[in-house]
C-alpha cells in the first residue's frame, strides 16, 4: 500500500496520521486523495468502515491550510445525517485541523444553540453540521456560506432516506458555485444522482466496492428459535461474550428495556435511540467506546438511529434482535462490524413465522446464509459466543425517599392559613379539642375515632364490614 506522503498528503498531516498508527492508505483513500487534494469535485461510493471519513477529512484540511476564516464565514463545511455521525466526523477532523491551525465546530439540534452561535461569531474554519440546525442558523443570520471553499456530503443516501434532501439542496445552493464539492454515498438512488448532477462539476467517480456488498471480512449467521421465550434467552447469551457487540431492536422502547434487562443480568449495557437527549446519547456512546477495564461497557442496544452514526472500532458482533424491514437497513446495521479490514460476525435472530421475510431480506441484500434452528445451549451458539465476560453486579437502586411529614402549624405563631380566621378552629377540629403544637400528636380516643368516622360518612352510605 502507498503511504500518505506518496499520495501527496502534506507532511504535518501525515505526521498526525502516523502518530495515530495510520501510515498506509486504504483503497478508497488511495483512489480519491490525488483528485481531492488537487481540488477536483468527487463522487465516492464506499462501504462504511472503508476509511472514507479520512478520505475527505485530509483534503478538507489540506486545502484550507494557510488562511483564516472571518467570523460567521466558515470556509469548510461537512454535512452529515445524524448528530452521532457529525460528532465522530468532527473528532476525526480535529487533530488534523489542530496541526494546520484551523478551528472546527459542530452544529446540530438537540443541544443548546448558544454555544454554537458563540463559536460561529468568534470564527471557525470548518463546520460539521446536520442540515436542520444549520438552516436555522442561516435564517437567523448567524452563519453565512458565501465563502465556503470545500463542501462535503457524507452518507448522502441516508440524508435522502431521512427526508433531508430539500434542506441539503438549499444549503448547497448557498455555497459558491466554484467551490470544491465531495459527495460520499453508498447508493445513487432517491435523488442523489440528481443532486450530484446539479452541484458537482466534472466530478471524478471512485467506487471501491460494490454498493450492495458489505465489507469483505464479515460472516453472516441466521439463527431460528422456537418461540419468544427462547429468543430472549438466546439474545442474553449472545450479549454475554467478552467482545464489543451491538444489538439492534426495532423500537425505542425495546432498546431501553433490553439494555435494562441485560444490565440487571450482570451484562452492563447502554441504549441509543431517538428518545434520548443529546447529552445522554453522547454519554452512552462514550461508555460503549471506552475500554471496559476503565469503566466502559461492551454492549450497546440501539435502534436504526445508530446504524449510520456509530463508528466504533473492534465491534466483534452485530445482532439483529429484530430483523429490519428493508435490506438497506440490514446492510447499514451490519456495517458497524468488520470495519477497516477487521473481521466481524452478523447474527439475525428470527422466529419461525419470520422465515419468509428474512429470506427475502437476505436475497435483496445479496447475502447467502443458511437458516440454523438453535437454542441458547446449541454448540453453534456456544462457539459463536466464545469467551464470556465476567459477571458485573448491578449497582443497587437508590432508596426511595419518604416525603417529609409536615408539622402541624402552631396557633401561637405565624400567619393564619388562607380562608381560616385567626382564633377559629381548623376544619375538622372540634371546639374545645386541644391543639398540639409541639411533640408527638396524640391519637384520638377510640370513641372519638368512631364519632369522627360516623360524622364524616355521607348520609345514605352503607356501612361495609
TrEMBL record:
Keywords: ATP-binding, Helicase, Hydrolase, Nucleotide-binding. One of its GO terms (cellular component) is cytosol. Residues 395-465 are annotated as: Disordered. Its EC number is 3.6.4.13. Residues 230-385 form the Helicase C-terminal domain. Residues 395-435 have a biased composition (Low complexity). SMART domains: DEXDc, HELICc. GO terms for molecular function: ATP binding; hydrolase activity; nucleic acid binding; RNA helicase activity. It holds the Pfam family Helicase_C. Transmembrane segments: none annotated. Residues 33-206 form the Helicase ATP-binding domain. The keyword Hydrolase applies. Belongs to the DEAD box helicase family. This is ATP-dependent RNA helicase RhlE. It comes from Microbacterium azadirachtae.
Amino acid at each position: 500500500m502507498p503511504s500518505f506522503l506518496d499520495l501527496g498528503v502534506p507532511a504535518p498531516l501525515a505526521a498526525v496520521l502516523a502518530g495515530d498508527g495510520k501510515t498506509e492508505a486504504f483503497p478508497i483513500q488511495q483512489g480519491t486523495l490525488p483528485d481531492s487534494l488537487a481540488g477536483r469535485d468527487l463522487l465516492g461510493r464506499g462501504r462504511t468502515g472503508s476509511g472514507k471519513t479520512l478520505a475527505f477529512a485530509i483534503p478538507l484540511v489540506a486545502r484550507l491550510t494557510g488562511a483564516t476564516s472571518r467570523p460567521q464565514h466558515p470556509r469548510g463545511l461537512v454535512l452529515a445525517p445524524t448528530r452521532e455521525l457529525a460528532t465522530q466526523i468532527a473528532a476525526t477532523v480535529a487533530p488534523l485541523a489542530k496541526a494546520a491551525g484551523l478551528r472546527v465546530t459542530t452544529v446540530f439540534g438537540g443541544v443548546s444553540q448558544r454555544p454554537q452561535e458563540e463559536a460561529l461569531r468568534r470564527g471557525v474554519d470548518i463546520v460539521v453540521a446536520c442540515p436542520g440546525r444549520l438552516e436555522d442558523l442561516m435564517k437567523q443570520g448567524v452563519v453565512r456560506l458565501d465563502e465556503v471553499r470545500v463542501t462535503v456530503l457524507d452518507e448522502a443516501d441516508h440524508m435522502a432516506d431521512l427526508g433531508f434532501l430539500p434542506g441539503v439542496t438549499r444549503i448547497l445552493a448557498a455555497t459558491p458555485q466554484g467551490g470544491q464539492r465531495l459527495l460520499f454515498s453508498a447508493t445513487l438512488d432517491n435523488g442523489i444522482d440528481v443532486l450530484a448532477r446539479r452541484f458537482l462539476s466534472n466530478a471524478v467517480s471512485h467506487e471501491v466496492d460494490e454498493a450492495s456488498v458489505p465489507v469483505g471480512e464479515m460472516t453472516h449467521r441466521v439463527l431460528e428459535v422456537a418461540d419468544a421465550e427462547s429468543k430472549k434467552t438466546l439474545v442474553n447469551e449472545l450479549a454475554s461474550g467478552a467482545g464489543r457487540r451491538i444489538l439492534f431492536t426495532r423500537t425505542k422502547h425495546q432498546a431501553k428495556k433490553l439494555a435494562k434487562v441485560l444490565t440487571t443480568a450482570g451484562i452492563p449495557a447502554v441504549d441509543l435511540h431517538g428518545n434520548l437527549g443529546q447529552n445522554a446519547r453522547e454519554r452512552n456512546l462514550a461508555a460503549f467506546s471506552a475500554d471496559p477495564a476503565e469503566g466502559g461497557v461492551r454492549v450497546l442496544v440501539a435502534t436504526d438511529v445508530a446504524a449510520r452514526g456509530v463508528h466504533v472500532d473492534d465491534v466483534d458482533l452485530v445482532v439483529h434482535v429484530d430483523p429490519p424491514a428493508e435490506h438497506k437497513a440490514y446492510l447499514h446495521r451490519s456495517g458497524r462490524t468488520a470495519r477497516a479490514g477487521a473481521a466481524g460476525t452478523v447474527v439475525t435472530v428470527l422466529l419461525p413465522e419470520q422465515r419468509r421475510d428474512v429470506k427475502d431480506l437476505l436475497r435483496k441484500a445479496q447475502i447467502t446464509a443458511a437458516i440454523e434452528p438453535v437454542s441458547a445451549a446449541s454448540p453453534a451458539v456456544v462457539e459463536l459466543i466464545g469467551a464470556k465476560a465476567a459477571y458485573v453486579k448491578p449497582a443497587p437502586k437508590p432508596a426511595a425517599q419518604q416525603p417529609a411529614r409536615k408539622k402541624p402549624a402552631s396557633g401561637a405563631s405565624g400567619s393564619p392559613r388562607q380562608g381560616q380566621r385567626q382564633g377559629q378552629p381548623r376544619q375538622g377540629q372540634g371546639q374545645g379539642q386541644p391543639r398540639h403544637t409541639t411533640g408527638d400528636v396524640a391519637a384520638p380516643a377510640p370513641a372519638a375515632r368512631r364519632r369522627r368516622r360516623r360524622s364524616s360518612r355521607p348520609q345514605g352510605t352503607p356501612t361495609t364490614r
